[in-house]
Structures are given as C-alpha cells and as structure tokens.
C-alpha cells in the first residue's frame, strides 16, 4: 500500500504591507523604490514578507498606491513627500516616540546638512541620503560629497588638482588601501543640488549609482571601482 501523502501546507497569508508592496511592484516600483518612498532601508521592505513587519507604513503605502494608479504620479520624490505625511512613528510602552535605527537627516535653517553612509547602506543604494538630496534640491541649496574608493580605483593620482581643484582638505589615505577624496566645496561653489537630485531620480533613487556614474563620466574612477563610504554635505549659496 503506497504511503499517504500529507497535504501541502497552505502558503502564509501576506500582511497588508506586503500586499501593498506587491501592488506597488505591479505598478512599476521596485523594492528599492518603495524603501526610498518610505525613507527606510530596502531590507525592511523584504521583512514585510518574512517577518510580518510594515504595519506602521500601511496608511502611507495606500496613499502612494492611489497616487500612482489613480493620479498617475510617478515622481519618487513627490511620492516620498506624500508618504511622509501619512507615516506615523511607533511609540514605546511609555507612549513616547520610538527611535529608528537610521540616522535622521537634518538641514538647518542656514542650509547646512550632512549625511553619511558606509558599506552596508551603500550596497543598498544609500537610500537614507536621498531625502537629504531631495530637500536640498527643493530649497535650492548647493551640494558636495566625499567618497572613499580603493586606491587602484581612481584614475587621477592622489592630490591631483585636476581631480578636485580648490579643495583644501587633503586626500585621506586609509590603512585598508582606500582613499577619501572630496568633490565640491563652498569655496568652489559646489554642485547644484537640484541637478544632482535629477541624477538620483534617473538612477531609480540609487544615490550610490548616481555618484558612481558622475565619477566615471568625469574620468575620476575606473568603471569597476566600488564606493565603500559616501558623505553628502549641503549649504545655502551666497
């Protein structure tokens, strides 16, 4: 007598955050886009499916989905601003606002702001820097950035004035054979944040890819060079 087969276990029911994420992906968003819209790391979006997370983002995701499917809004910066208005921070047992793991990005009234990311965040597109760049673009600020790349990844020699002219900060060499180099400053005028924000949008919200593409286009790094640290700074133009 052949052994009886046990019926397959039913697939676990997705929570509402995961269902909304599925619908957003069907509408053309990637998980990275969704993470950028809610200003969180892409790993959190994956946890909608694996760890039943995301309840706090359901109202925001509903609004974003409606904006895409009904109003035809596709600009990620606009969708992120919409989501922010419908995102409620978690509270602790005492009723106070819960802290989030990501470092908050703040631009002061004078326009100065700084955001830094390291290897893990860079690998996922430096999503936490996107709100800083978007807000700097909205306010008409200037922007500069510092990158760390392996020495062999740079095209121009260390300290070259062609690489980053007018930057007082010397090239910083690390013991792991990487170098930090800065691009743009208040003294040289830096970069237009709005123009840089458009680069980020063109890269699907991937700040790492946008910076890397600029460095490759301007002949500063090799095409296969990997950024291991990224810092963005903003200020009000004179």
Care to give the gist of this entry?
The protein has 238 residues and is of the alpha+beta class. 35% of the residues lie in helices and 14% in strands. It has nine helices and six strands; from the N terminus they run αααααβααββββααβ.
How would you portray this structure in words?
Strands 1, 2, 3, 4, 5 and 6 form a 6-stranded antiparallel β-sheet that branches. The radius of gyration is 21 Å and the shape is globular. With about 240 residues, it is of the alpha+beta class. The longest helix is centred in the N-terminal third of the chain and has 12 residues. The protein has 9 helices and 6 strands, in the order αααααβααββββααβ. Strand 3 and strand 4 form a beta hairpin. The mean pLDDT is about 85.
Question: What are the main properties of this structure?
Answer:
single chain; 238 residues; 6-stranded antiparallel sheet; 9 helices; globular
Tell me what portion of residues adopts beta-strand conformation. 5-15%
List low-pLDDT spans: none
Measure the end-to-end span. Answer: 87 Å
Say what oligomer this is. single chain
Determine the mean pLDDT. 84
| N-to-C SSE string, H for helix and E for strand | HHHHHEHHEEEEHHE
Structural class: alpha+beta
Largest β sheet strand count, sense and barrel closure: 6 strands, antiparallel
Secondary structure: number of strands: 6
Percent helix: 25-40%
Radius of gyration: 21 Å
How many helices? The count is 9
The rough form would be described as: globular
